Amino acid sequence: MAEDFLRDYKINQKKSLVRAERSAGHLGRFFGDLKAPEITTPKVKEYIVNRLEEGAANASINRELSALKRMLNLGADQTHRR
Q1: Whole-angstrom Cα distance, residue 37 to residue 60?
Q2: CB neighbourhood size of 30 (10 A)
Q3: Under a CB-based contact definition with an 8 Å cutoff, are residues 71 and 27 in contact?
Q4: Residue 47 and residue 62: Cα distance in Å, rounded?
Q5: d(Cα 17, Cα 22) in Å, to the nearest integer?
Q6: What's the count of helices (H) and strands (E) in the chain, helices before strands?
Q7: What is the structure's pLDDT at 82?
Q8: How confident is the model at residue 81 (pLDDT cuts 50, 70, 90)?
Q9: Long-range contacts of range 50-58, CB-CB < 8 Å, 24 or more positions apart?
Q10: pLDDT(3) > 90
Q11: pLDDT in tens, 20-53
């Protein structure tokens, strides 16, 4: 999902690509081995706690969660098109 997310940023020439790559890295380290249906609300809350414990700012976590939402939406679009 992260690859599709970053490809979308590149195709649309978004200026925040570096920030998107950073967000994808944090998300990948935590959710990397999970399939989309395994990313549940409790798992997301666990991610938030983990990032807060790492010292991440709320704004950074919110950007990362926005990136996760975009990844999931892109994945859902792919599923519907098949």
Answers
A1: 24
A2: 17
A3: yes
A4: 11
A5: 9
A6: 4, 0
A7: 52
A8: low
A9: 51/26, 56/26
A10: no
A11: 999 999 999 999 889 889 999 999 999 999 999 9
